Amino acid sequence: MLDHVLEERLTDLKRRGLHRSLRLLSGAPKAVVTVEGREVIHLSSNNYLDLASHPSVTRAAIEALESHGCGAGASRLISGTLELHAELEKDLAEFKGAEAALVFGSGYHANLGCISAIVGPGDTIFSDELNHASIIDGCRLSRAQVQVFRHKDPESLEKLLACQPPTGQRLIVTDTVFSMDGDVAPLKEIVALARRHRAWIMVDEAHATGVFGPNGAGVVEAMGLQGQVEIQMGTLGKALGGFGAYVAGSRVLVEWLINRARSFIFSTALPPPLLAAARAALAIVKSEPERRKQLWENANFLRQGLLGLGYRLGDTASPILPVLIGGEEKTMALGAALLRHGVLAHGIRPPTVPEGTARLRVTPMATHTTEELRRAIRAFADTGHEVGVL
Description:
Layout: H1 2-15, E1 25-26, E2 32-35, E3 38-42, H2 55-68, H3 76-80, H4 83-96, E4 100-104, H5 107-118, E5 124-128, H6 133-142, E6 145-149, H7 154-163, E7 170-175, H8 187-196, E8 200-204, H9 219-222, E9 231-235, E10 245-249, H10 251-260, H11 262-265, H12 272-287, H13 289-309, E11 321-326, H14 328-340, E12 343-344, E13 347-348, E14 358-362, H15 370-387
Parallel strand pairs: 3-12, 5-6, 5-7, 7-8, 8-9
Antiparallel strand pairs: 1-2, 2-3, 4-10, 9-10, 11-14, 13-14
Helix pairs in contact: 2-12, 4-12, 5-6, 13-15, 14-15
């Protein structure tokens, strides 16, 4: 009975062009990968700095595996807190310019656990309309009142703050770099509004960590706002190449999360190899700014090439390049054609993005060569005419 109902629902997804399936990649997620037995240029990864298979990162993971084993054995509050957790959290706090940090199992866990721990019934959350799904679900789980402001619109936020009765706690939460559009939140204006209206600020730096700022610490660092944002969340699984997440802030905040963040309390601790890998990746981010510089150069080269062909990229201000197509069918057809031409660029459809804004989410890495990017641009030219989007 269940399978019958689900089959009908799957058929409906296929009919509407919204069905998803997994694609098998062979080997490490590098700038060039093997898909279905063919080498293709990988433009669909969040491994921005190509650290996932960096020798220093993998060596650190192997050494931790040999010395500490493959798992932590329990949740952090039972017996799962290792020296490696404390060492990584110290590194992360220093990296983010915060007093303390706490490691979570994933970015989803961090947003769910943090938001629902610090606000609740009687409080109000002010959330950007294009915030990540994990932020949206964290807001729902908190049972606080949620006010959604227009995307990157300080005036919309200010109106909501001014209209809301000054009762309970107020939390403004926003991505700094929006994962599907590549644009950046007007964080200086948001900080000013928060101070004026006595609100806390939480930012999701998942796609900014390792990419923005003089030391790669994110948009908060890039805008000189350290000490003015109460809660900084970020991930270990994008530019840092591993898996997991963190929340950085005051010592009091971290102590509260240890006691009240359910996704932290009731989850087995992050395993030793991932902790060691994250520490090694952080060290590379801080000591090799040339990787970040090359990533931006590659993104700008690819951006100019795609714009020169006539593609529409949206308001991106990051290495995330959303190639806006609009219709789901043509978007997926373009992605399939690109794969045949040796380029992996994944199609993004509703409900991940709003109706009518389906796109290819294109993300170069620091290690893509100029020749690889030129080949990718040629493939976009050929397939754009083939599919009928140019």
